[in-house]
């Protein structure tokens, strides 16, 4: 998982603003990560690139995607990361709006070695930005990979936030680069 | 304050659209703490729009409204702040130790009460300058707080003790420690003087008689109940994991409706006329508006990032001169 690992390392400095809700005595608390990026293109053009649940080729960590039922509610996709035969993430769509330019999905199956989270849900949306551009907002809520107290470092809250932040940042950076110079 | 659109302009628009100047009756506002963006959204409940965003450093969750002021608790930075209701100006702040979380305002004694999640106590603060005037010992991990309208007693939901503590505010003595459901977090006072706890560990609401210190009954609700509000003869319970609100009848004390709201619903409160129930959706970054009579969701208002609004958060008086 070279690609994802590289992304994760790159993302580490970003995490400091994402703090757990409170330290707790009763297992994990739900974490939330929200990232936004200004994109130099109108919302319709950006949505045309990212608005298809069955096509995540705009994200540099995603090698391929296969799925069923397009952009219908309960549509599924299996993302293969990195390269052919790489690790996979199974996801299901639970909200979709062309009008609002947004969709929401959950992870139904992923190894914590690939993405150290559980009960993950995510929301991706395009909004109007400054000077005719767009703002892409990507947010996720999840628990860390380790369900009990005293998690190992690679499965604690910080690791979960770092991993998700890394994935979002890489995707948003790629989008910004794709539309740069517009 | 980072930005503020012209309130009068929005009102004029509302009058033009709805053909009435008052909808609902009084001009009311919701003061919603946004934990992840460390600020507070002021929502105009006439026009269903955010009209101001006020910086509240330190990841605020707890909220209370009082006489001419609203109060916030930032759990991360351990700060309690008092802001002017009319313009959101910061009036006072204090940094506490431990783990401040829940907050309630008591009008009769002009005090605010803040629960300390880590140290099994409640701070008593002067509602004006926020100086600490006393402490009360609770069970482990107190969260939600309620002050009786006559100012004679105070109750806390002590999460890790599975109990509600009821204090006599004249003497400061513990009156009752009542065992409720598993891990009570939210605590609200119903219209007939009964207390209701949201038990996150047993997916239930426990009804407590604070005068006699006993449990009346237990109501099964959705997964991970968080907050409770009351309107039109019903209770409205937010269920964090189910993305729903369970509605129960206050006579029969049984669930009559289950409403889909935004994702990860948390704090809830009601407009003064009892017409609308508001629910802060932590993941969706919105507040759902529920018509309490028809028990349907009639609107959704955008907020900052991670709205929690843990406490009472609806008041009038914003945008008014003295």
Automatic annotation (TrEMBL), chain A:
Gene3D superfamilies per UniProt: 3.30.530.20
InterPro entries, alphabetized: Polyketide_cyclase/dehydratase, START-like_dom_sf
Keywords, alphabetical: Signal
Annotated signal sequence range: 1-25
Keyword Signal: yes
The name this protein goes by in its record: Polyketide cyclase / dehydrase and lipid transport
Species the sequence originates in: Roseovarius aestuarii
Phylogenetic lineage: Bacteria, Pseudomonadati, Pseudomonadota, Alphaproteobacteria, Rhodobacterales
TrEMBL record, chain B:
Keyword Mitochondrion (UniProt): no
Keywords tagged on the record: Lyase, Signal
Matches recorded under Gene3D superfamilies: YVTN repeat-like/Quinoprotein amine dehydrogenase
UniProt entry tagged with the keyword Signal: yes
Protein name stated in the entry: Virginiamycin B lyase
InterPro entries, A to Z: Host-pathogen_enzymatic-act, N2O_reductase_N, WD40/YVTN_repeat-like_dom_sf, YNCE-like_beta-prop, YVTN_b-propeller_repeat
Signal peptide limits: 1-27
Residue intervals of the YNCE-like beta-propeller domain: 122-308
Any one GO MF annotation of this record: lyase activity
One Pfam family matching this protein: YNCE
Top-rank lineage group of the source organism: Bacteria
């Amino acid at each position: 998982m070279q690609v994802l690992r590289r992304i994760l390392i790159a993302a580490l400095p970003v995490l400091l603003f994402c703090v757990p809700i409170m330290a707790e005595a009763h297992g994990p608390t739900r974490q939330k990560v929200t990232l936004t990026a200004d994109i130099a293109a109108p919302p319709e053009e950006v949505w045309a690139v990212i608005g298809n649940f069955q096509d995540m080729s705009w994200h540099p960590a995603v090698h391929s995607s296969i799925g069923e039922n397009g952009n219908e509610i309960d549509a599924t996709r299996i993302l293969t990361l990195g390269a052919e035969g790489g690790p996979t993430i199974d996801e299901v769509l639970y909200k979709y709006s062309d009008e609002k330019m947004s969709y929401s999905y959950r992870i139904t199956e992923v190894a914590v070695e690939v993405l150290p989270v559980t009960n993950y849900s995510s929301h991706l949306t395009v909004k109007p930005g400054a000077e005719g551009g767009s703002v892409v907002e990507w947010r996720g809520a999840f628990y860390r990979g380790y369900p009990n107290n005293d998690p190992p470092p690679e499965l604690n809250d910080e690791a979960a936030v770092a991993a998700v932040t890394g994935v979002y940042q890489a995707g948003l950076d790629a989008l910004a680069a794709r539309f740069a110079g517009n | 304050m980072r930005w503020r659109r012209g309130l009068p302009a929005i009102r004029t628009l509302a009058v033009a659209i709805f053909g009435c100047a008052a909808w609902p009756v009084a001009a009311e506002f919701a003061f919603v703490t946004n934990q992840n963006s460390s600020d507070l959204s002021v929502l105009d409940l006439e026009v269903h729009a955010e009209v101001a965003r006020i910086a509240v450093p330190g990841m605020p969750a707890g909220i209370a409204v009082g006489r001419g002021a609203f109060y916030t608790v930032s759990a991360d930075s351990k700060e309690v702040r008092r802001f002017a209701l009319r313009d959101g100006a910061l009036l006072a702040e204090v940094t506490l130790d431990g783990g401040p979380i829940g907050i309630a305002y008591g009008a009769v004694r002009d005090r605010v009460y803040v629960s300390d999640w880590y140290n099994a106590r409640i701070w008593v603060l002067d509602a004006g300058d926020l100086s600490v005037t006393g402490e009360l010992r609770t069970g482990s991990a107190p969260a939600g707080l309620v002050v009786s309208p006559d100012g004679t007693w105070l109750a806390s939901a002590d999460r890790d003790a599975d109990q509600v503590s009821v204090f006599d505010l004249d003497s400061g003595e513990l009156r009752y420690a009542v065992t409720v459901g598993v891990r009570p977090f939210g605590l609200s006072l119903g219209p007939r003087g009964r207390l209701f706890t949201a038990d996150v560990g047993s997916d239930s609401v426990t009804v407590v008689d604070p005068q006699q210190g006993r449990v009346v009954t237990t109501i099964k609700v959705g997964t991970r109940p968080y907050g409770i509000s009351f309107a039109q003869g019903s209770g409205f319970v937010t269920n964090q994991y189910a993305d729903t609100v369970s509605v129960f009848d206050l006579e029969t004390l049984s669930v009559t409706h289950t409403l889909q709201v935004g994702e990860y619903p948390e704090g809830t409160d009601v407009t003064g006329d009892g017409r609308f129930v508001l629910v802060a959706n932590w993941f969706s970054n919105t507040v759902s508006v529920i018509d309490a009579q028809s028990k349907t969701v009639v609107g959704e208002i955008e907020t900052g990032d991670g709205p929690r609004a843990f406490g009472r958060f609806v008041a009038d008086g914003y945008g008014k001169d003295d």
